Each structure stands twice: as structure tokens, then as C-alpha cells.
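Sequence only, no structure available. Ideas?
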Amino acid sequence: MKKVLVMICMMFGCTFATKANGDKSSKAVANARAKHISDQMIRDLRLNNYQSRKIREINQQVAEQITAIEQQYAGDPAKVEELCKNVCASRDLYLENVLSTVQYNSYFGDRKAYNQEDRKFASSLLNGQEAGGGIAAAEGQTATNGTVSIN
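Reply:
I predicted one. C-alpha cells follow.
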């Protein structure tokens, strides 16, 4: 009886440990994605410190939502595309309140390029994980990028 209890406890422990590692991995992917796209937007749109901080917050929320959607609906690319468009549309509304008119117009014209760059970066992160490079290598690459802020 004790052996059965120990085996059940070990089985649940392994299951929960695996689940926890998966959550950390998705959180790290979302963080790396948000940092990458934020750095690009800060540089391209020439954002000030306030705008940079707000953009990082917005992109962090969006990256977490998109990463969760991609994991939840991994087998249905059409559903992923539809839900991600909705998340990006909500990001557009938030950005409209943070960016100046000129900056928002520039962003709005280039948003497809930003979304493509984000997907490309996310796939490189996931391919790096499978190959053993992992997120740490990607974070190491982006950590050397400087942040440009114009006051």
C-alpha cells in the first residue's frame, strides 16, 4: 500500500514539474518576443522614455496573449491567425493613445512588417529551443542591443 502511494505521489510530482517547466518556457518566449519587438519599435519610431516604457508594457501583454494562443491552438493555424489579429487590433488601440499622430501613422503603415518580424523571431526562438540553443541564447543576443530614447 505504501509503495502504491509513493508511486502515485511521484507520478503527480513529475507531472506538475513538467507543467511548471512548460509555463516558464512560454513566459521566457513571451518576454523575449516582447523585448525584441519593443526594441525595434523604440528604434524605428524614435520614442521617448515614457513612450518606451508604455510600449514595453503593451508588448509584454500582447506577447503573452499571442504565445498562449499559439500554444493552445497549435493544430489550427486559421484559428491562431484570427485570434492573433484580434490581439493586434487591441494593441493598435492602446498604441494610438501612447504614440503621437506621426509616430502612430508610421507604426500603422509598418504594422504588418512588425508582425512578420515578431513571428520570424518567435519561430527562431522555438527552433533554437529544439536545437538546444534555447531562449538564453536569444536573450543574450538581444541583451547587447541598445535602447534609443529621445526626450
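The helical segments are 2-45, 49-72, 77-98, 101-131, 134-143.
Hope that gets you unstuck.
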